[in-house]
Automatic annotation (TrEMBL):
Subunit description: Homodimer.
Biological source species: Pseudohoeflea coraliihabitans
Keywords attached to this entry: Amino-acid biosynthesis, Diaminopimelate biosynthesis, Lysine biosynthesis, Methionine biosynthesis, NADP, Oxidoreductase, Threonine biosynthesis
Designated name of the protein: Aspartate-semialdehyde dehydrogenase
Gene that produces this protein: asd
Binding site for substrate: 157, 235
Amino acid sequence: MAFKIAIVGATGNVGREMLNILAERNFPVDEVVALASSRSIGTEVSFGDKTLKVKNLDNYDFSDTDICLMSAGGTVSQKYSPKIAAQGCVVIDNSSAWRYDSEVPLIVPEVNADAIDGFRKKNIIANPNCSTAQLVVALKPLHDRARIKRVVVSTYQSVSGAGKDGMDELFNQTRAVFVADPIENRKFTKRIAFNVIPHIDSFMEDGYTKEEWKVLAETKKMLDPKIRVTCTAVRVPVFIGHAESVNIEFENEITAEEARDILRDAPGCLVIDKHEDGGYMTPYESAGEDATYISRIREDATVENGLNLWVVSDNLRKGAALNTVQIAELLVNRGLLKGRKAA
Ligand code: A2P
């Protein structure tokens, strides 16, 4: 059986990656439709060896579409997802619009695949924040083994997480530094070239940013509401790939060697952890890859059962497009879709 798929936000960073990943993984596609705003009508995007012309999301009829992969931001999702879902098309949304809705499953297939059964309530499934996706892939197998009590995360997030405008800003500012042009801050609140910015998304009343709050709320929803999580989210001048320094406190004893063995066998994880120059992963090397890489696995002797990890992944892939396509595969593999066009 093959399915009709729509990509909303097909001209964006994540939308283009969704098209690449659907083609790479030979998703059973009957037809793919690329959608974006009216600004992009007729723009060409690639799907495998085919070229698709972008259509306007406004008034697009989803009644014969099986799955809509949505990555056009929260405001667009809030407006359009319920309408698309009401036409019988399952929406898998990459924005934060639906993640905290108790009637919408939030899924990382390696972590909580069974939660997908709840999707029929709204016909919407949420994809987590990019930083949370890679974090929970690494935490899940360790939690199963030694029960995590508390996690302290510091993120080093690439500019592609802020969309194609974020990538352009890093490029333009870097160039401006070299040719001594004035530096303009449009997308980020401070200069990102040759700098780091401890501010992603808006500030909340308690002084944390929304990005930091997302990491704790989403980890609790997907992994275990009892885990205590605190986070500092930082934007760094890297184009693609997020890194995270992760400090974990467990209920039960676990050695670094045991953690390394568990993570080596865990789905979605790849351990690169040699105690030598270059024996670890960096964001630059993760770009274009599917795995969540885990390096620098060490015991933290300052707490009873503690570990430190360095977790790296391509934020456009596992953090967004890949996870969304994996959710679509889960729907297909569990027989939860009928294939409306083919039927
Ligand atoms: P467009 O290129 O037509 O603006 P990124 O996060 O990389 O900036 O990408 C955002 C994506 O969301 C783009 O494909 C963008 O399309 C799309 N988008 C933004 N606003 C809308 C809208 N109102 N309707 C449909 N697509 C939208």
